[in-house]
Amino acid sequence: MNTLIRNGQIVEDGWQWIDADEAHINARLEAGGRLLLPLAAWLTHRARLDTGCAGVWLGPDDELDAVLPWLADIPLIAIRFPVFTDGRGYSLARLLRNRHGYRGELRAVGDVLRDQLYFLWHCGFDAFLLRADQLPHEALAAFRDYSWEPVTAR
Amino acid sequence: MYLYNATDQRLVDDRVVQFRDQMARFLDGRLSEDDFRPLRLQNGLYVQRHAPMLRVAIPYGTLASHQLRMLADIARRYDRGYGHFTTRSNIQFNWVRMQDTPDILAELAAVQMHAIQTSGNCIRNITTDQYAGVAADELFDPRPYCEIVRQWSTLAPEFLFLPRKFKIAISGGAEDRAAVRFHDIGASARLAEDGRIGFEIFVGGGLGRTPMVGQTIKDFLPREELLNYFEAILRVYNRYGRRDNKYKARIKILVKDLSLEGFAKEVEDEWAWSRGGPATISAQTFRDMDVFFARADYAPADADDPGYRQALAGSRAFARWVERNVTPHRAIGYAIVTLSLKKTGAPPGDATAEQMDGVADLAERFSAGEIRVSHEQNLVLPHVARKDLPALWEGARALGLATPNIGLLTDLVCCPGGDFCSLANARSIPVAAAIQQRFDDLDYQFDLGPLELNMSGCVNACGHHHIGHIGILGVDKNNEECYQVTIGGREGTRAALGKVIGPSFAAGQIPDVIERLVEVYLAARHEGEIFIDAVERIGLAPFKARVYGGAA
To answer: Is residue A154 domain-resident?
Structure first.
């Protein structure tokens, strides 16, 4: 199980990640549990899944239109950062939180580093699955990097 | 001038602590080179040809005397006793030690300065007209808006990892001295017929590898919507700008790919949602901001001062300096003075620590303690009583800063080039020196009249060569430094990009080439016609013919 930062706490992750090229998708779905699906698979299979157990993850170039009608029911949306210098996920987070009013868990995954946590948090992320070499307990200090708040805060 | 409140101060103080920790983790190996690079760049720290370079932000080019003294002090204690003022009105220190930079940033924070976002793929230092707030010809003072945008864009969390760098310029109207149409976003002051204050917004301008003149995306944006609208532009760019090729990653390429109409439609969609929302600027904010910049404390001065008139009549050198380096001020009896950092033999834009201290003193004596940095790499004293001009001139002469060449050929704009910059294809400082030596004769320069020469050591165009009346670009031809020449570029309301006149030249040929270009102009000019207007009238052909003979 992965170690996660959620709402400023270190927690064990109860969600299972499904890759975009998962070969045995049906077997994974039947095995049950809380699943985090790529957008295309989530759209295909969401009707047969228990809403509370089906999260969706987005790549930086995914469009939000397809998930917007279901935002009130989605317990978890993860946004993947292929490299930390790809800033598209910040705008996706802001759109989901501010423009579309998403209230569920918004998780940053992928190349997520301690030094970006403060800014990700201020764009609306409340959960962070750090890159494997990062130390989550040390990274908690990042939420106190600034006592200042940005002009367009949440 | 704007003064930091507790929030601004906390931000820069926190930033120093954060960067000190990042530097420590980098130096002991916990932070890899790749992970550290974007972090140091967002703190203005480059690794250059010989040493690290630290670029310090001078927001919209405004400095107080005590801040300039701090820069002098840093030059003395951490560098080799000088700094380089850039074409984006920042200052660069070329010889700092990497491990010293957290201490330097801490010293800067103590005088309300920093190096945040002077590099990296984020919103860079906001620039404006160096005469903002005092120019006789402006519609309104753009600095309150610069400051509002500065606060919003500083560590704006959504926009720290854009596809590429992003530059915003804001000018006060009528004349454009901020090159607003050569920025990712340009805003130019406008007044609506009903008196409302707003801006014309340009998008997609820029120099560099693919120079483009910005296009109007909004004829009139009400001032309270500045942040909402800028945020809409940035969000569309952040999501859809190209990230696969850094040479095609600037917003100008996205605007071109989507067409202006297509891009504007996306922006309108974003703005329709945010318009009137929480980031709308309140009337109170404008009032609070105006207080910082309003100057009602000018001592009354007579339009005509006998001492000044006497000095004009008595000294040709002083009269020449007034003609070139003094600009009309909106207040009667006052003047704006430009101190030239373009003395022949000194690298353009460089100032020694002693000169910086000296300018700080002059500003305190004669200019309410305020200094501006121009994007032409000179220093400006914006609040000088006309009666003080003779004394100021003496002071500036003693510092070597009274060369009467503002707007003339030797006031050339020039990047640090291959002597310092690891991006450069060619050196620029020695070529600049050769040009200045060739045209050092003041009578000749005055006869030539206004002529802007800009030089860049590579296509990144830090020297803005595309918008020089004459532009020089350093290129690498089979491992040799060569120089391509353009003419016909200009900034301002009649903005245009220069055109290449033909094959490039060796460094040693450049002064001759410039001389030939100038000879064509002198022979062809009409009464009162300046170089660039003559180029526009007669076209490139006569210039090419003179430079290349039959060969081109």
So the answer is: no
